[in-house]
Amino acid sequence: MEIAIKSDVGQRRTLNEDAAGYFLNTQNVPLIVVCDGIGGHNAGDVASAMALSHLGKRWEEESITDTEAAYQWLVKNIQAENDRVFQKANQYRELDGMGTTIVAAVIIDSELLVANVGDSRAYLYRNFQIKQLTEDHTLVQELVKSGEITEEEAKRHPQRNIVTQSL
């Protein structure tokens, strides 16, 4: 397996608020994480860096080798990181309102476990085909799910970047 990480600031912003990395636990099980600080808010870069580094450090101390344990770990630790980001945002004025999206994957043998919050996505690339694995937590995705707009309308919707869940 090859793991590659590349990030780009994009065309709208001058500050790259992405944080990405992979970590091996004590049993060499990889955790791959991408966090995208929420642009337009204070300190998105701080929130994404915090989430990445804290999750990675905790994963490196684990010895998990089965997907059920990995699932429980992801839920517990993403919730804990949400609490930490929220506490820091309330503690320091310059961090007020900070947030990040996250997508994390654990690969155990031939199984892939993915968790996401926000609009950071996981895709599966196999046999020259790309398949989106996660669902965005956005206002527009909710409109699509409820049948109020089509997938095609969602691509150009003026509120397509409004995230409904984040850390």
Model description:
The chain is of the alpha+beta class. The chain is built from 4 helices and 6 strands. The protein has helices spanning 44-60, 67-91, 139-145, 151-156, and strands at 18-24, 30-37, 100-108, 111-117, 123-126, 129-132. It has a 4-stranded antiparallel beta sheet, covered by helices on one side. A hairpin with a 2-residue loop joins strand 5 (123-126) and strand 6 (129-132). It is globular and about 45 Å long. The two termini are 29 Å apart. The model has no long low-confidence stretch (mean pLDDT 93).
What's the short version?
The protein has four helices and six strands, in the order ββααββββαα. It is of the alpha+beta class and 167 residues long.
Entry keywords:
alpha+beta; 167 residues; 6 strands; 23% strand
SSE blueprint:
Elements: E1 18-24, E2 30-37, H1 44-60, H2 67-91, E3 100-108, E4 111-117, E5 123-126, E6 129-132, H3 139-145, H4 151-156
Antiparallel strand pairs: 1-2, 2-3, 3-4, 5-6
Helix pairs in contact: 1-2
Radius of gyration, CA atoms, in whole angstroms = 16 Å
Count of helical segments?
4
Based on Cα principal axes, name the global outline. globular
Lateral arrangement of strands in the main beta sheet: 1-2-3-4
Cα-to-Cα separation, first versus last residue: 29 Å
Which percent range fits the helix content?
25-40%
Which structural category do the helix and sheet elements fall into?
Answer: alpha+beta
Characterize the main sheet: 4 strands, antiparallel
List the uncertain runs: none
Average of pLDDT: 93
Annotation, overall tally of beta strands: 6
Sequence of secondary-structure elements: EEHHEEEEHH
